[in-house]
User: Fold these one by one.
Assistant:
Number 1:
Amino acid sequence: QVFRLEDYRPSDYLIPSTGLTFRLSPDETTVVAELTVERRNGVKGAPSLILDGDGLVLRRIEIDGKTLEPSAYQASADQLVIANPPASGRFKLLLETQIAPSKNEALMGLYRSNGVYCTQCEAEGFRRITYFLDRPDILSVYTVRVEARRDEAPLLLSNGNPIESGDLEDGWHYAVWHDPFPKPSYLFALVAGDLGRVGDSFVTASGRSVELGIYVEHGKERLATYAMDALKRSMRWDEEVFGCEYDLDVFNIVAVSDFNMGAMENKGLNIFNDKYVLADEETATDTDFANIEAIIAHEYFHNWTGNRITCRDWFQLCLKEGLTVFRDHEFSADQRSRAVKRIAEVRTLRAHQFPEDQGPLAHPVRPRRYREINNFYTATVYEKGSEVVRMIRTILGAKAFREGMDLYFERHDGDAATIEDFLKVFEDVSGQDLSQFALWYHQAGTPNVTVSGSHNAASGEFTLEIEQSVPPTPSESRKRLMHIPLAFGLVDPDGKDMAYADVEGADVADGVIHLRKRRHVVKFSGIAERPSVSLNRGFSAPITLSVAQSAEDRAFLARHDSDAFSRWQAFNTLLTETLITAFRSVLGGKAPDFSPELLKLAGTIATDETLEPAFRALALMLPGEADIAREIGNNIDPDALRAGREALTFAVAKTNREAFSALYASLNAARPFSPDAASAGKRALRNVLLDYLSALPGGVGLAGDHFAAATNMTDRAAALSVLAHRHRGSQQATDALASFEARYCKDALVMDKWFQIQASTPGAEAVDIVRSLMEHPAFSISNPNRVRSLIGTFASANQTGFHRADGAGYQLFVDTVLAVEKRNPQVAARLATALRSWRSLEPGRQAKAREALLTMSSTPNLSADLRDIIERTLA
Ligand code: ZN
């Protein structure tokens, strides 16, 4: 079944209030739903009431207190139809269903994880609990009563505020929760179990006191202190930056160990993958700390962008996700280093969204059709969606953007809104016409902008010839011209931005060229000397750039651009171009050779004390095989990419050996440990240097020492990666893998890192490594985190292993995806996207990848989730 945006129609019926009573038991949970159903104003007659279900068993059905005759309704597992609802148009519908949380391996609806009952209802999981109008534009006030055995579940949580609790017979007890804010069913949540609690409180800007609770496995309370701190910082920040205040008496977060995604913003009761809550220096890396901070903030920020204002339908998913990602990006930028954060965001966007946008799974930020909505929780909706909001701010300026946001909250609080509603507030506050800009929501594909510059010394004119094009994507062969805000600078030989007397050929304001036509010839006058052009500063638009620019200009910008992002970009582009040349050399049977200037520039950047260590670390990270492959675009042989990249690593290390060693030694791990951004930046730089130095003779000893001396997980995991990847088989590597395993075998989240590091072992042997790790006692095919760390890493982050020339990587992959699919279609479908770039491989691998896709597509009884991905990937 295909769902289309243009088919949206408001529901004939509304459900203004919902009462739910759960009597919890692992295999036989009963759910009694008492719904107030109301015909929507203006609907004529008494049309049938059709409720969504998914795998439900109906036990009881009453309307206004009277049992319904079997002839009056039709109940299947997936639907409940009441053909002739009361003509009055307002009635009470009582439904009793029975479900088995312990058998729910799809982890949608109500399930049990480690003995804890929990729910995941977005997008369409609520219909696995009871029959309902399970669509986001049906807003209802929920009152939830949870009953359970006290010994099994002393803790009973749901959305909103607690209003009552007490004992029942036979060791049972109950709690009642009421959420005064009307909400869609996807935001419903329930948690029941035996968990430890970390408590705190927060006083909002207007003086309301909010009780905060984070619930984790007993004994792990200490590991939630960082998350709690991040939560309080998020709450304050949202008040200060967006004027958004929290609105209930309590705010709870629960960490569970089986979770399909990162976390979920259920009103007043966020549920998290425990990976994004639990952390201390011993078990979490600096990346983990940063992710926890970002995701805690993200889910909290949804309280306004997502919950108070929700989506009319799932086509509008980016309305809440793109916007909330933008908000969490800004939060992290304010808490940490803005420049470093921006570089990290762009790296993520290019690594995940660009291949999506440039391959068979491309779709607009606001899609127009879907078969399975779960497959649209994508980098395009989230990350590109955030970039689109960022461009609105760039175009309007920070002040008008904030006014637009204020108007959005004022105008749409309590609504299920659309992207058109969102754009309208910015048009209204600014008076600007955003209709061309709106194409960013409607049109898929990464625009390319080609630029060349020329200087006329005699006339003092500098000219930029700029052309945009948007490549065709599936089902969109012809693209319209976009409004692209291109931030730029004309950099003089001292590194300062030049002033110009006048400009013609495009709207240019506040350092931004607004491209609206296919081609602009932009002339700057009053430019005496030839500038170096810095383009797409701060990554002002999510595009690819083709700029005719000399290596000298790039190297100059890498050292002198006043925009930190562009400095990083200039050096990164130099590295990428170098690696593409190296790839061609390797394919031609020649040893790659490198420009001595470039090799030295790496040393200059590494030791430039005016730059933050975290920035230097990011600059020194060579583009990965997938990054280089994306730039080349076709006929990819990952082994040749890797050979070129290893050669460059070695050459950089050899050229800068002394400088790198001295710097490495000077960065000795600071004690006591602090997860703050500056300390993390020093660790990142030191660990990048380790990676280089370990490529030199004697490097294995250095890595072994680094591992042995590590006093935190960041350093330990970094050393383990270097040993396991570059020095596999050495005594140091073998010992380190064994000691890490012995030390952490009881800690599932740390074991994920152990699996992940080994799953990314480069080269042909990775297939056997992964196969044998699947037999490891700590591996479990039903736990999403384990599957992602071993299989997800192998398929998405190990180019040479996964794309092994003989196809053995694909075989392992097909077997596993199909095994996962039987339990959890959503996780399987996500894994399967790893093959989306198969058409860019060289012909031999391409044929084998296609075979793998065909094997999956011809498997009988494929889930809608997996079938959708496979078919689009093959199309
Ligand atoms: Zn979200």
Number 2:
Amino acid sequence: MQFPASFINNKALAGYFERDKKILPEHEKKDSVKMGIRDIIDELAAEGSITRRQVTRLLKECGAKDREYLASKAREVREKWYGKDVYIRGLIEFTSYCRNDCYYCGLRCSNEKAERYRLSERDTLGCCREGYALGFRTFVLQGGEDPFFGRDALSRLISSIKKNHPDCAVTLSFGEHPKEAYKEWFDAGADRYLLRHETANEIHYRFLHPEWQKLQDRKKCLWNLKEIGYQVGSGFMVGSPGQNINSLIDDLEFLEGLQPEMVGIGPFIPHRDTPFAGEDHGRSELTLMLLSIIRLMFPRVLLPATTALATISEDGRERGLLAGANVVMPNLSPVSVRGKYSLYDNKICTGEEAAEALSSLKKRLKGIGFNVVVARGDFKRN
Ligand code: SAH
Ligand code: SF4
């Protein structure tokens, strides 16, 4: 992993370079061809490291019982750091305009059928007020890359949220921007930033995006965010067109280098008005295994059981938590716009108000032994 030169003396990254390697060269592990699957899982759980060949074997050879064993190890590690607590993040989808053209996404600029909206500052603050009363202490402002929200407009919005709710974290999930913009939003009070790298494999990235969207730019944004001091989240879709085991291992290796505080993964789900309309969706089993592997590689990471996972399987959130996740991100957007924020088909966007949805979620999670807590839920540094 090549680090930008500016990292060497950066205080926000103190201790960064001493962190363990997670994906080891083959010769540093026992002969993984002869090891049993359970031994590979045990070693990953004990040491947090794995080789490329071992990942390949896990993803190819685990049967249902092995997958449950892997999940049980991931649960143990999750419980060591976070107990049975589940952090909730209130997702506010504040704009559906996007200048980008990712082939997989329903909000891509060339989708003329997409219904576009942007929330007013008043509406967004209203969502936060409602969320706060329900116990949310993190608000995630997510949107397409909408030029309408320049540096100033978003800075103002962030400052207003922080002024109204000083005990809450603000997370941005707003795509790629110049470092100066990220810095201004950080100075306005934003605490965290979610920017999935989508795929760390150059050829795969080209397959998913038009020529002018560059993997190098996306990676550079992630390093800039780290350098500024954000808690950073990255991640990828599982089962996106063109993905294979090698590109998935590249993803894990990229995460190892980045050491994100949060990792978001969820199945790819086709959208009818995109070039990938006819593709199959990613599999739950593979997503769950990757959640467990990520938990074991990065024990303290904040790891959501995503809406996409809950979209392809009715008990997806529960299964995600049981595989090692510890975060859920219920929707706080106004019910009137939810159908328009259509990243993929059949995205859960019930007409339920946030309060009803949260209370039924809490009940369901309690039923499997988890407690939804009222807390910012920051990354545990030590
Ligand atoms: N525009 C911002 C944030 C909104 S999109 C960005 O791209 O970062 C948030 C995430 O939705 C993306 O990172 C992508 O991984 C996911 N997504 C988009 N289309 C999807 C699809 N068809 N299936 C599953 N996830 C999708
Ligand atoms: Fe825009 Fe994000 Fe969708 Fe890409 S994934 S088209 S950047 S909203």
